[in-house]
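A favour, since you know our structure tokens better than I do. Just paste the record in under my message, thanks.
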Amino acid sequence: MIKILKYSEVESKEIFARINPEDNVSDIVAEIIENVKQNGDKAIFEYAKKFDKADLKSLVVTKEEINEALTLVEPKFLEILKKASENIKKFHEKQVRNSFIINDTEGIVMGQKVIPVDRAGLYVPGGTAAYPSTVLMDAIPAKIAGCKEVVIVTPPNKEGKINPVILAASFVAGVDKIFKVGGAQAIAALAYGTETIPKVDKIVGPGNAYVAEAKKQVYGKVSIDMIAGPSEILIVADKTSNPKFIAADLLSQAEHDKMASAVLVCDSDELAKKVSDELEIQIPLLERCDIARESIDNNGKIIVAENLDVAIEISNEIAPEHLELCVDNPFDYLDSIRHAGSIFMGKNCPEALGDYFAGPNHTLPTSGTAKFSSPLSVDDFVKKTQYTYYTKNALSKVAEDVEYFAKKEGLTAHAKSAVIRIKE
């Protein structure tokens, strides 16, 4: 049963405690990465047998396999994928940055170029559930950014097949290549390249503890989006909220993973009790009830605050991945929210809208990193370079200033390079 805590009556460490995975997988992951780095495809095939129980003949998903998948997916789902894709495109197209140029001083030109990374690698989980939504959320911003090539890695089943819904979403999103590999070995393959899998410039996408650790270890060799922890939802609710809705929304995250965190912060003892009771009614009805039960019992909590202003202060300190502002007039409180991955406004906006359909990205900062990190966006797939041009006349006007500055740092070669052209 979920814990109910009175904010004014318990220690802050109990309010703000987070569950951290206990598994230390760094040594295992390092060994996998080194094996893939040294042995390429051979290591990937061996890991497919070991971890996926799949005897693969090829790592590449063929056009024939994609076409077959499209026949296996219901036409209605294909239409929904296309609708969701359009919503995601509409939102992310607004994120496109433009290059700029400054030439308002005679003889001086400065500017910044915005350039997409050449190749983006997307990790799509395929363990306890398939996530076509992740394909759309990660691939569409990369395509909008203008990446030359977008590739997906995702684990196969025992028959060496990829879930048809993953392939259908990849087709809708315009993914260029798909490879049958999961886990830390997939991240290693993207970071270093193999005979079959190309090296990428950026790796994005969620995964288990092994995937997260692998992304951490290859960072610097390639760029990554973030180190994702267990999924989180925090709901700020007022006393007039419907407990059935709140319970359903908490469980929408709890069913992800036994390590997921579902938190309600409300201003009513009565609502807290009703939500707790409703959770006990709804959990047994879920297909993934065992996962949801463990998540709610171990990581879930209901925090009763004096009022909504305090509730929002608590939320800002937790900095949740998903924040539902389940109150009347939610826009009155929007400016008070400083730290959250994605905010869902009002009493008719469940977090599931953001997972699948609304348009904003669902790859979000977890574990409190929303205090300094942002959702996945088009920005993640571009880099910026800058340029400067001075004529001789323009340089002559500032050369002595540059020389003076350089000498203050004791860098006489810098100083000389600024004035030598003028003295010549």
In short: The chain has a mean pLDDT of 95. The chain has 16 helices and 14 strands. Residues 241 and 326 are 7 Å apart (CA to CA). Residues 75-93 form the longest helix (19 residues).
